Amino acid sequence: MKVLAVITARGGSKGIPNKNIKKLGGKPLIAYTAEIAKKSQVITDLIVSTDDEKIAKICKSLGVEVPFIRPRELAKDKTPHLPVIRHALKFMENKNKIKYDYVVTLQPTSPFRTPADIDKAVLLIHREKADSCVSLVKIPSTFHPIKIKRLQGNKVFPYCLEEPEGIKKQEFPDAYRRSSTVYVSRRDVIINKNSFFGENIVGFETPFERFIDIDNMNDWVEAERKLKTLKSLIFKF
């Protein structure tokens, strides 16, 4: 398999200025993703897609290739991942004169992944011949979709699931959300179907203890807390 891994790191963060290079536990946030990705057994090429020279410099010091500075039009607040990954994939295929099988997308804002998470995702999509593979985390009962409501005027309705009266949280059906730990997409789905996920999506569960998607300072504080806990459990981050 030929597997391209792309760490996506835009420079213009508003919620937390310079978020991707802000130090968490003494090192830049993006370093957690770079160091883990370098330990993967299945990644063929690892690069960073960024529009920011400071991020590029730090990533190069970490031993990660930064083959281009991302075009400004692909680094806006609302730019989705698909055009960013298409750009990186086409650039690297042209540069290396090869065609990749899969693209792994890694976001620095979810730093507590392991090499096994990455390898498991790639092997799963390959084995199942799927269009994409996503990491998932189980939703705690406090935020379970069965408890989410829709307010229409002053009338309350279920948002998506009926909540039977008297149901206990132990009886809630399992519900998951994408954890942002790792995404793997089939190359042909990205290029030929112009889709990030495609139709045939497989997934696997990652522990809630390692789940974080840093967007604001409250998330950052939670990331610092989780980092201390994970280190106490002998995780090497």
TrEMBL record:
CDD domains: CMP-NeuAc_Synthase. Pfam families: CTP_transf_3. Gene3D superfamilies: Spore Coat Polysaccharide Biosynthesis Protein SpsA, Chain A (3.90.550.10). GO terms for molecular function: N-acylneuraminate cytidylyltransferase activity. This is Acylneuraminate cytidylyltransferase.
